[in-house]
Amino acid sequence: MEKEVKTAGDKGTRYDCLKLENQLCFPLYACAKEVVRHYKPFLDALDLTYTQYITMMVLWEKKEMNVKEIGKNLFLDSGTLTPLLKKLESKGYIKRHRSKEDERNLIISITPEGEALKEEALNVPAEMRKCICFGKDKSSQLYELLYELLEEFDKAK
What we know:
With 157 residues, the chain is mostly helical. It is built from 7 helices and 3 strands.
């Protein structure tokens, strides 16, 4: 994804589109990487990776979902989710079982241990707000723009 190239007069070249500074995708990538890096110490204390954390967030809210629904919520494919869910199950936070109605459907349920982890994770958002001092208005604006972008990607599928 490119941003609009701003050049002074005709001084731009046809290769300006290949400059890193003209890419919208690069600051998105770099910011995402930095945000995850800031999460790391808080999630290390919970023995979770960022992807495991967001999976648990969905399960704390829904309690039980099939793998396909989790993937849709998190924009993750089953190849990414399968090992992640196995790891969360080995930690005792979730249970995986086949649907009685359709054996092809793998259902993920949160366990009491997984629910208890929610209490330990309660401080993570507040700690992250301390790390990313962006202000409520700018944060809200960025949030809305990013979700608009995700909707556009979803439409393009």
